[in-house]
Fold each of these.
Amino acid sequence: MSYTNEQLERLMQDADKRAHSGRLERLRFLLSEDDPDPAPVDALAYEYYEEARLCWYVGAFVSAIVMSQLALEEALRSYYRAAKGVGGRLNELVKVDEASFADLIRQAEADGWLCPNEADALTKIRKEFRNPYVHTRDTKANDQLVKPTAFTQYLKIHAPQLLKSGAEDEARESIKILAGLFRSISRRAWGIK
């Protein structure tokens, strides 16, 4: 189908109107969580960090969750690349670049580089927020559904009032964890207190 410039302009205006809803509060939240202390950070991890924040701001909540996890994962991975060398081993079982986020969290906590509450926060993003969106499948145990279905995830996005929380709530918590840990993890990687 071919659209006229006027039709395209109208589609853009409609999309802008929908996306604008809640932006002021989301921006206020972002600024309240911002860390004013600059810290050296890995370039790729920082790009993911900024994209997570942008996704939150524009209301792309699932993307904000995924990008928050990627930013934190890359911050850990970049530390271990520097500490173990490019192509180095995270531990005796896995190379740094082949490590999962769970592997990186476990190793950083075992190395004393992450404290238990930081590891728990990163695990929360991974298991409770990100995984259900990127691994939507029905899993049953004793005839009980034990993992969210695609329909549950759809409801979190489009009808959160039917559930105890929705994608926006999960994205807010992910962004809060990201804002609270990204720079401190980066500072630690560079030996800055």
Note: Residues 38-126+165-189 form a domain with the Four Helix Bundle (Hemerythrin (Met), subunit A) fold (CATH 1.20.120).
Amino acid sequence: MKKDRGNNLEKLLHNLSFMPKKIMSLEGNEKTPEFVLHELCNEDYFNLQKAAFFVDSPDFNYLKGIAGFNKAEAFPENDIWNDPYGFIDHMQKATFNQKVREFTRGSIKREQLSEQALIKMAYDLGFHDPAFHTWEMKHDNHGYLIYESNGSAVSSAQDHLENSLYLFSFCPIF
């Protein structure tokens, strides 16, 4: 059993090493964060059930939902990068992604709100057992990922999730 966990972690790290190249293949595409989120939630990565990515801009007192993933609405093809236009079309119709992208409010950082604000956001979006990570992004912005784990992910892989979120900093944010 330990060997399988090691192989899963090795596969995860191998896949993560290709993410910058994949991001560059979509250079300038405003939907790039949706690709990154979908990929990170994939079974070959962190196997998340549901996730929502937000950017908080204290300078403009604005928090915006950027991308949402719900496993029940996942793109049916194995490799989203081979059919980018099909994936973009699919995500435009995905109910949870639309709900996240429509979400806006004042900046949590600027208002100096606690983690309770993120938990409230999670419940407002229909999360049942949310977890979250926050990280600093370019231009004094902050990223938030609210997610539900599938529970079957390799626990040691979760250590890499937070570092992987910095990949969003290479994506254009519109």
Note: Residues 2-170 form a domain with the Beta-Lactamase fold (CATH 3.30.450).
Amino acid sequence: MVDLTPIFQGGEHIQSVTEVVLVNNVTKTIDTTVPLGERWLLKHVKVVNADNVNRGFSLTLYKETAITNLIEWFENGTLNTGSVYSWPNLTVSKSINYFRTRLLKAGNTVRLVLAAGGVSTGSTDADGLIIEYLRYRY
């Protein structure tokens, strides 16, 4: 069967949307792994803390699904109540990062961890994690 999915020269543009459900004082971990036969050019990641407490968070890249070999820390900090984090993080001091991309190979895993934030109401955000990338299949 021929895959007739519309593509462009730079790869197929994907905007993966994941619902994030945060529970009272519980850590949330979401792993997204590049499947076999694919390479991704990571363009953008958006994370939302819809809870009513600040939460520590980290966004990391591991070599494999076993989460053994840490390749890169994209971010490690605090996500305030109702805040949104974007990678690459465009700030005055990091403005060059706006044009940053990251090539990922099959097995690479992007891990988001939202730490327990203390007593809270919890929250659900339909688009709490968005990973935007160009997908190359081989």
Note: The chain is about 0% helix and 55% strand.
